[in-house]
Amino acid sequence: MQSSKTDQIRALLKSIETGEPGPIAVVNQSKYIQHNPQTHEGSEGLEALFKRLSLTNPRVNVVRAFEDGNFVFGHTEYDFSSQRIGFEVFRYDGDQVVEHWDNIQARKGPSSSGHSMVDGPVDATDLNQTEENRALVSAFVQQVLIQRDHAHMDDYFQERQLIQHDHALADGTDALLASLENRATAKLYEKCHRVLACGNFVLAVCEGHQEGRHSSFYEMFRIENGKLAEHWNTVETVPPREVWKNDNGKF
Fold first, then answer.
1. Is 115 helix (H, G, I), strand (E, B) or coil?
2. In this predicted structure, what is the pLDDT of residue 43?
């Protein structure tokens, strides 16, 4: 019996730690498009790359992973020379992976409310509400984050409640609103490239600036009773074009 796409991706990412070549067979390396600007494309086969990485004694943990049509999106913990948190997005063509995006930042926290960047529920529920939940997050990102229409923020939350995993923010929407209105440090969301959903988990892939730096914002939400109930994220600065190691772009 063929394993699910999420199981395949879990095994693929774990092989960075183990160096096992088997899981890499899910990747069509002749068609593989790599969107991490700091990763060479085609210069080193994944088998050799993962084997080389495994010799550094890395630790890889896929905390949660979800399937959305031809996409799998995962939330990961990495411990190479330092601890990092990431989101990974893979696109399938048929039964093989042909494209990859990610967003990785240094692990920080816990938050003042005691949450880590990855703890919380890991299993998707309400699978029959996937499209409604995708639409909810899409509307929030467009209206509140991109258009900065903060007057409608409360429409998306239940009594201003929010379990917050951003290391810099406390629970509740007051802290989130204050961060969005802080001109010195606010994230300026300019475009939403993709919204992936599986039941009550939704991931928005956004582009913008923070403190003058071109940045990538990955925002994951858990929805409960039609409202945004929990939030995880990573922020990564997009390196200048002249230092990219492939020509595919971050997004």
1. coil
2. 54
Sheet strands (E) in the chain: 33-34, 59-68, 71-79, 83-93, 96-106, 163-164, 187-198, 201-210, 213-224, 227-237
Q: Is a pLDDT exceeding 90 seen at residue 19?
A: no
Q: Are 148 and 180 in contact (CB under 8 A)?
A: yes
Whose structure tokens read 């190691």?
Answer: 245
Cis geometry, peptide bond prior to residue 110 (ω within 30 degrees of 0)? yes
Domains and CATH numbers, the chain: 5-107 (3.10.450.50), 127-237 (3.10.450.50)
Strand, helix or coil at 221? strand
Q: What percent of the chain has pLDDT over 90?
A: 85
HEC assignment per residue over 143-205: HHHHCCCHHHHHHHCCCCCCEECCCCCCCCHHHHHHHHHCCCCCEEEEEEEEEEEECCEEEEE
Handedness of CA 121, 108, 184, 101 (dihedral sign): negative
Q: How many CB atoms lie within 10 A of CB 116?
A: 17
